[in-house]
Hints:
mainly beta, 4-stranded antiparallel beta sheet, 28 strands, globular
Amino acid sequence: xxxxxxxxxxxxxxxxxxxxxxxxxxxxxxxxxxxxxxxxxxxxxxxxxxxxxxxxxxxxxxxxxxxxxxxxxxxxxxxxxxxxxxxxxxxxxxxxxxxxxxxxxxxxxxxxxxxxxxxxxxxxxxxxxxxxxxxxxxxxxxxxxxxxxxxxxxxxxxxxxxxxxxxxxxxxxxxxxxxxxxxxxxxxxxxxxxxxxxxxxxxxxxxxxxxxxxxxxxxxxxxxxxxxxxxxxxxxxxxxxxxxxxxxxxxxxxxxxxxxxxxxxxxxxxxxxxxxxxxxxxxxxxxxxxxxxxxxxxxxxxxxxxxxxxxxxxxxxxxxxxxx
Length: 324
C-alpha cells in the first residue's frame, strides 16, 4: 500500500509541475493552451485583436499578450485564463520584454518608432524611448541593466540604459533585424536579420557595450536562398547551442555557438516564426504560421517529434511552469 501511495504521490507531483504552453494566434485573435505533459490542447480563449508578442511573468501567474490592433497589452491569469486588466502599450505593440523583476515592461511600437516603458504594478507609462524605424526585436540583459531593441528599417540594434531610459550604444546589423537575445551569462548577444539572411553575433563587455565577433549564414540544399529568413531565435541555458527559426524555409537551424557553424537543420511546419523552450529545456516549441500548428522538437536528439494544431496563424509562444 505504501508503495502504491508513493507512486500516486509521485504522479501527482509530476502533474503539478507540468508546463502549460500558451500560443498567440495572430489571425484567430485567440490564445491556445497546451498541456506540456500530454501535448493536448486544453482550450482556446479570446485575446483581443491580432495577438502577437506573448510572455509569462517571472512568478508564472500572469500572461502578457500584445493585442496589436487594440493598441494595448492584455494581462491574463495563467490558471483561469481570465483577463485581469490591460496595460498601456503605445500604438501597434508587437514584441516586448519584462525586466528580471517583472515590474517593468518594454514594448516595441512599430508605427511610432518608440519603445514604451510601462510599470506593471501602477500601470503607468514611465518613458517613451525614440529608436530607429520600425522597432521589433526586444531583449533584456540578465542583470536588467540594458534593453536591446532592433529596428527593421534602420537595421540597427539599440542598447537602452534601463536606469536612464536613453540609448547608450547603437550597432549596425543586416537587413530587417527581427530578434535579439542574450546568452544567460550576458556575455553574448545574437541578432537575426530576416532579409539579410544572417545572425550577427556580439560579445558584450562589462559596461554593456557590443563588439561584433561574427556572422552566421545558412545554406540548405534544395532550398532557395531567399527562403532562408532568420526570424525567432533562442540560446540554450549553457550557451552552447543557438536555435534559429528560418521562416518560409520551414527549417530550424541548430548552431554551435563556439564555432558559429550550423550543425543541423530540422524540418518543421510552414513559415516557422517564434521559439520557446519547455522549463526543463528538453523540448523546443516552434510556431508555424501557415500550417496553423506548433512543432515539438527534442533538444537532445535535435529531432522534430510531433506537430500540434492550434488556432489561425500562430505567432508567439510562451511557457508557464508548475500549473495544475
